[in-house]
Amino acid sequence: MARSRLIRFLLVVSLLLTMFAALAGHAVAAQSVTGTLDLTTQFPVLRGKSGDSYEFTVSLTWNGSETRNFDLITTLPPQWTAKLTRAYPASEIASIRMEAYRDYPEQFELTLAPVSWSQPEPGEYVATLEARSGDLKKTIELTAAVTAVYSFVMTTESGNLNMEATAGDDNSTALVLVNTGTARIENITFSSSKQEDWEVIFTPDRVAALDPGVTQGVEVIVRPLAGKTIAGDYMITLRAESKDYSPDPLVIRVTVLTPAFWGWISILIVIAIIAGLSVFFWRLGRR
Amino acid sequence: MKSSTISGLLTIFHKELSDIFTSWRFIILFLIVFVVGIGVVWSAAQYIREEVVDAQFVFLQLYTTSSPLPFFTLFIAIIMPLVGIILAFDAINSERNNGTMSRLLSQPIYRDSVINGKFMAGVVTMGIMLTALVLLVGGIGLRMIGVPPTSEEAVRLMAFLIISVIYGAFWLGLAMLFSIFFRRVATSALASIAIWLLSIFLFLVLFVQTEQSGLGLAVSQISPVTVFWQVIYILLVPGARTLSQVTQSNVTVPSSALSVGQSLLIVWPYLMSILMLTVICFAASYIKFMREEIRST
Amino acid sequence: MNAQPVIETTDLTKVYDSVTAVDKLNLRIGAGEIFGFLGPNGAGKTTTILMLLGLTEPTSGVARVADFNSTREPLKVKRVAGYIPEKVGFYEDLTAYYNLAYTARLNGLSEELVMKRVGEALDMVGLSSKANQPVSTMSRGMKQRLALGDILVKTPRVAFMDEPTSGIDPKGVNEILDLIAKVAKEQGMTIVMSSHQLALVQRICTRVGIMIKGKMVAEGSVAQLGRDAISGGRYLIEIQLVEITSLLIDAIKRISGVTDVDRTGDMLVVTSGKDLRPQIAKAIVENNGLLVRMNIQSYGLEDIYMRYFREV
Predict the structure, then answer these.
(1) Which ipTM was obtained for this model?
(2) If one looks up domain C234-299 in CATH, what number appears?
(3) Nearest chain C Cα to A287, which residue?
(4) How many angstroms separate the CA atoms of B27 and C303, rounded?
C-alpha cells in the first residue's frame, strides 16, 4: 500500500512541476524573444512540366531559448495542392516542434502539385509557406515554374497504316495532327523516307501553329515513279518535326498497283496474241 | 520462170506451215511450251514483286530471274532444240518413205524449193511461237509488275527473239540434215535427240563447274546450248560481262550496266558461231539434198 | 510414127558406180502412143524415165521430151510431163482433194483453176465421192487411180507411169488399164508405161519396147515382136494328125514357101514365110491324111519375154 501512495505522490509532484514549467516558459517568451527563426530553402524555384509535382526541401531553423511548436501554413495558387512531409519516417506533417537552443535546422519537404484534373498553364505559380508560433513567424515563397508540354501525334485519319497506290498517279491519304501537349506548337514541317525517285507531297507542306487540343488535317500524296515502280508492297516513313517536339514517325505500307493503262495494254497484248494464234491455227487448219 | 520458182516455194512453204499447225505433235509441244513458259515467268514476276530487286532493267528480269522455277531463258535454251527437232526430224525421209518425194520433185519446181520451203516453214513457225510466247509472257509480266519495258529493254528483247530463232533454226537444220542422211525416221529422230541430250549434259557441266576457267568450262563450250545461253544471258542481264557471271545463275545486275551495243559486242563472237552452225547445217542439208540422185528401187 | 517424136533419146547412157544402168538408148515415141516399157526389175526402165523427166542426170547422151532437153530444161519438161512413180505415195492424213490441189498449186495454177482441174480430175478417175476423205482410208487401187488423177490436174502432154499395176488385184488392174487407155484417148496424151507384167500391159499398148540390162532389145507392136523374137519373123504352123507318115511330110515340104517341117510326137511344126494354112490343109487331104487340128502359132508377150530372158 505504501508503494502505491508513493506513486500517487510522485504523479502529483510531476504535474505541479509541469504546470510550473509551462507557466514559467510563457512568462519568459512574453518577456523577451530570444533566438531567431529562419525558414530557408536552397532551391526556391523549381521548374517542371505541366502536371508535374514540385518537391521543395525547406529548412527550419530555431535557436531560441525555449522550445516551441511551429505551425506550418501554406498559401497556394488556385488548383494547387501542397503536402508537407518529413523525410524519415515518411509521414505528413502540419507542425514542427523545435527544441530550445537547437543548433541545427529541421528539414522537411513541401510537395507542390496541381490538382489531379488540372493541367496548369505554363507560368510561375507561387506558394507561400509560413512557420508560425505565436508572434513568431517566418514566410518563404516557393515558386513552381510550369513550363509548357510540347506534344502532338500524327496518325492516319482512318487509322489504317496501309494504302494502295498506282505508279505515276497521285495517291492521297489523309493524316491528322493532334496537339496533345499544353503549348502551341509552331512551325511543324514534314519529311519522308521513301523509295528513290518517288514523290511524297504533304499538303499543307507545313503547319504554322497548332494550339493545344487542336486537330489539323494533312493530305499526303504518294506518287511512285511512273514506269519504274514494280507492283507490290513498299514501306514509306512519314515524319513531322518541330523545334519543340517530334512525334514518332508513321510507317505506312504502300501497295503499288499496276497502272490502269499498262493493265489494259497487257490485256490487249494477251488478247491480240491469243487471237492472232487462233486465226493462224484456224487459217492453216483449213485444207 | 522466176515467178514460178517463188510460187512453188510459197506453195510448199504454205503446205508445210499448214502441216505443222495441224499436227498434234506440234500443237501439244506448242501448248507445253506456252504453259511452262508462262509458269516460269509468272513465278519470276511473283519473285520480283516480293523481293527487292534492282529497279534497273526490271522488265528484263522477268526473263532472267529464277525463283523457284528456272528462268525463262534457260527454258528457251533447253526447249528450242526440241522444237527444232520435232519440226524437222522427218522432213525429208518421211516424204521419201511415203513415196511423195518423187511425185513432188516431178512437179515444175526447183528442187531446192522443197528444202527451202520446209526450212522456211520451220523457222517461221519458231518465229511465231517465240514471238507469241515472249509477248504473251511480257503481257502477263506487265500486268503483274506494272512496269513497261524501256526502249533499251525492248531492243534487247528483240535481239533475244531473233537470236533464239536463229538458235532454233540451227536445231531445225541439224534435224533436217539427219532426215536427209538417215533413211529411217526413227534413226534421224534418235540421232537428233542424242545430240540434244549431249548438248544439255555439256551445258550442265557449266553449272557443276566451280572453278572459273577449268577444263569443264572449255568442254561445255562445245555445246550449242552453252553458247546460246551465254549470248542470251549477257544480252538480257546488262551488267553481265563474262562467262563467269553466267555461271552464278541468278545474281542480278552488278553496279554498272552495259549499253546494248557493248553487250552485243561481247556476244558477237558467240552469236557468229551460232549463226555459222546454223548456216553449216543448212548448207550441208542443202548440198546433200541437191546432190542426192533419185534412183530407182 | 509421126515425123516429130514427143519423146526422143539419143545414145542416152547412165552409169552408176561403174554399173551401166542404161546403155546408149535410142528411143522415139510419137504423139498419142501408149508405149509399154517392158523388162525385168533392174533393167533400167525407171532410170530411163527419171532421165527423161530430168530427175536424174544422164552420164552421156540426150533425152528430149516435147522438144525440151530434159537435163537442161527440167522445169519445162516437168510442166508438160506427168509422172507416177512406182511406189506412188500421198500425204496420208490429207484428203484426196488437197493432195491433188497441192500438185495443181505447185504447177502454178490459179486458185479457181485449181478447183476446176482437181474436180475434173477426180471425176475422170471416179473418185469424186472420196474427194474429202483422207488418203489413208483408200485402197491401193484407189490410190493408183488417184495417182492418175494427180497427173491429170496438170493436163500433161506426156505421162510417165512406173509400174502402174503393181500390187493391185487383177480386177483392179483391168480397171486401171482401161482408165489409162480412156484418159490417153480423151486427153490425147502420150503415155510411157513401164511394167514387168507383160500380159496385162499388152492389152492397151500400141507399141512396146523390151529393155534388158540397159539395152532396148526389141521394139514394135506386140505381134511383130513375137514373130521377130521367136521365129525370126517367120510363121509357125502347128498340125495335129491322126497318123504322121513320111509321105505326108514330103508333101508339105513340097509346098512352095515352106522352109522347114519338124516332127515332134504326133505334131508337125511347119515354118514358113507366110500364112500357108489353106495350102497345107489341101496337101494333107490330097495325101489322105486325117487332120485333127491346125493352127498358126500366136505369140504372147510371155513367150517373147521368156525368149529374151533365155538369150540373156
Answers:
(1) 0.85
(2) 3.30.70.100
(3) C98
(4) 58
